[in-house]
Amino acid sequence: MRKLKVTEMGRKSVEEFKDSHKMPLVVVLDHVRSLYNVGSVFRTSDAFLVQGICLCGITARPPHPEIHKTALGAEDSVEWKYFERTMDAVMWLKKEGYTVLAIEQCEGSTMLQDFIPDRKKKYAVVLGNEVKGVQQEVVDMCEGCIEIPQFGTKHSMNVSVTAGIIIWSIADRFLLREQPAQ
User: Fold this and answer.
1) Which runs of consecutive H residues, i.e. helices, occur in the chain?
2) What is the pLDDT of residue 6?
């Protein structure tokens, strides 16, 4: 078995990425502190053709060397928009026709393995601050919550790891697998 060379991977240029059909998913970062986490979310969003990212509150914005260190240029390909208040991002997304879901541990959360996206809908997922999670007032505005099941002594994960799990899972169900008729 031989590893592929970068030239053999058929990667898109930034222009080709921007012209590509995207997965109807927006990732919302609610006061994410770490610029490395922000960059990682950009990179994962690029990998799965995510529609865009909303950066909210204290979440840093490109251009920034620490974002670039983990994004590796994905901050140039993935569309992003800044909102001072996460609630404004949620309201904007709802007006744009998105179903907005918090990624949080809440009463009545839908476990990730039970979430089946409707291919006729557009989704936005809100990921919270590394310490406090998604703000309660933002959770209150969402149409629901998705929870990643966890089985160890810790019941939290790094926000960029959470983003990777959520984005992959939605891409797997939304783009890759056949879904039962709804």
Assistant:
1) 14-19, 35-47, 65-71, 74-77, 86-95, 136-141, 159-171
2) 87
